[in-house]
Amino acid sequence: MPLGYNGRILHVNLTTGKFLVEEPDELFYRRYIGGSCIGAYYLLKNMSPGIDPLDEKNIMVFAVSPVTGAAVSGTARHSVTSKSPLTNTIASSEAGGYWAPEFKFTGFDAVVITGKSSKPVYLWIHDGEYEIRDAQNVWGKITGDAQRIIRQELDDDSVRIAMIGPGGENLVKYACISNELGHFNGRNGMGAVMGSKNLKAIAVRGSRKPQFHDDKKIQQIALEGARRVKQDPGAAAFKELGTSQNFEWHTPIGGVPTRNWTSGTFEDVEKINAHALKNTVLKKSGSCWACAQSCKRVVEIKDYVDPAYGGPEYESAAMCGSNLGIGDMTKISKINELCSKYTLDTISLGGTIGFAMECYEKGIITSSDTGGLELNFGNAEAAIGLVELIAKREGIGDLLAEGTARVAERWGDKAKELAVHVKGKEFPAHMPQVKASLALSYACLPYGPDHVSSEHDPSIAAEPISYKLLGLGIDRPEDIAVLNYEKSRLFWVTQCDYSIIECLSLCQFIFGHWTIMDLNELVEFVNAVTGWNTNLYELMLIGQRRIQMFHAFNLREGITPKDDTLPEKLFKPLDNNGPSAGRKVDRQDFNKSKEMYYKLAGWDTETGKISEERLLELGLEWINNV
Amino acid sequence: MEESVEVVVEFYGYFAGVAGKKSEKVTVSSCTKEGFEEIKRYLSEKYSINQGFMLMVNNESIIGILKRGEHTILTKDDVLKIIPVFSGG
């Protein structure tokens, strides 16, 4: 079997209860390497077009990569790929934590799930063995209770469990998947797909460490990573302050999403930024398996917020904080804790509630629509109450569980003008009005808006540009808010390299351009694990292969270039407040940059079709036959 | 014109920790493009801040100003913001 891999992929049909173990050859692994590249392969090969994401014929693929299980910082991630109920496109969602390496040690590289069980079940995969177990006694339970019960049942506290809470069980369109209570496959509603299959959890435990090519080299890389985390000021700050440093970085450029994206400046930002979190509710920093960076936050508020559920990262603090007009760290922490318990994506939740709040404030809906809840911006108690209503689909929660786009359809044209989403998915907390390439990214990504699929504009806003980007040919500085062909190139090129990082199930906080390891070291790492003697060119091809497979899946689903657009709100000026006062995305710049991006990607600008030569270059001619 | 001018440098994010302060006054010998280059040399020599930052004045990044024409003139008490670059989180 190829080094770094187990050489085995587990297939399970929940309808029939049958399992199959596939043993692909090394070339399969070399072409598709891991993560959602493998996921996309199985979705393209085995799914017909037009399947409802909550239908039993939808396929879910949990996958890791050859580097998973090598005890190096940033390797503890796994990918879940499926058709998203939020966007109706192919989507993937990644998580850190502890599940990924444990799954790798069970002796499999991926599990492909089809069908639907007739009753709630969980999968138990351990040291090469696998079974379906009854989950009726944990169905309906929040994650903490379900984890405890399953571990008791299996008589092992070290079992790692990827699971859904009531949000996933109730098919909330943006339900997520949790592991260790504080790590999430957050976006795209993967939790709802699990719920639609009556699949509560996948429990894993293993001792089958894969064989690597060069253990000594891997150890050197691990030690070097740990050393840099200690000595690099940026990495040290990350450990101390976490991702909420984004507030400090976004404030001077007017990039803090505020009150449903009406402004980039929040007057109470100092109450919810990284220092506020550290000085009020932070209990400790948290980590993923084998990682020295410790970027996670764990918060505690006595008798109010349980530290077992982690704590708010920047996205949660912004989307459930400034975007809702809430400047109270304790309330944001409570919303975060509830989302962890019920498994709801805090980004989409914050986007949907923010939208509802603006509709309420503008009189589009009233308290008779909200069941008496006063959905004014800043009403933290109302937001907290909504989390449970959404998870349980009660009252207005039943509608809000559908996500902004579907709610807007119900509430009419005036509501649609306020809605911020692309392809049905809410924006993460980075504003395209001040980081212009995100206008392209949010519009054109196959799974809707995502902030971790390409490099952001500040990276090329100053000289000298990082050598890591120079090495990709990104060598021309540009203003952060300008949208032009240079930004098309920034998006396309870095989308490919972020894609390979994703395929390898690696963490961008270790292997990104603004963090401690670079792409040459990434290549060294892959070679140390696999012995392939690969190079960056091959890895970038694999990254692009994933992007093109995702695009091909969507074309088959009827997604067209017209769907790669932005909400009208972004083409209108932000309110007159702060450094980004009056900023907007220029429509003409957007259309021209998008057209150039399509050309770079090898897509027909009218139909979106992938050129024959691009498919040939990537060895993807078979896509035309599926 | 080559006039010296005193400006305010503000440190954002972890740069405040690196510098040990949130802001300080700096005098540069030129109020034109050379003044910006002096600021960057000063950041590098005094604080080892060599890359991975944006430099903004009057809510616009320096690169943008320079590309639009090298006519930007620094004036007394202009605020230059030094911001770490970042992508995601």
Work out the radius of gyration of chain A.
22 Å
Number of helical stretches of at least 4 residues of chain A: 26
Strand content of chain A: 5-15%
Which runs of chain B of at least 5 residues are low in confidence (pLDDT < 50)? none
Q: Report strand order across the widest sheet of chain A.
A: 2-1-6-3-4-5
Helical residues, percent of chain B: 25-40%
Number of E-type strands of chain A: 16
| Global morphology of chain B | globular
Gyration radius of chain B, in Å: 13 Å
Distance between the termini of chain B: 43 Å
Give, in spatial order, the strands making up the sheet with the most strands of chain B.
2-1-5-3-4
Question: Biggest sheet of chain A: strands, sense, closure?
Answer: 6 strands, mixed
Order of helices and strands of chain B: EHEHEEHE
Oligomer: heterodimer
- pLDDT average of chain A, as an integer? 96
Gross geometry of chain A: globular
Separation of the first and last Cα atoms of chain A: 28 Å
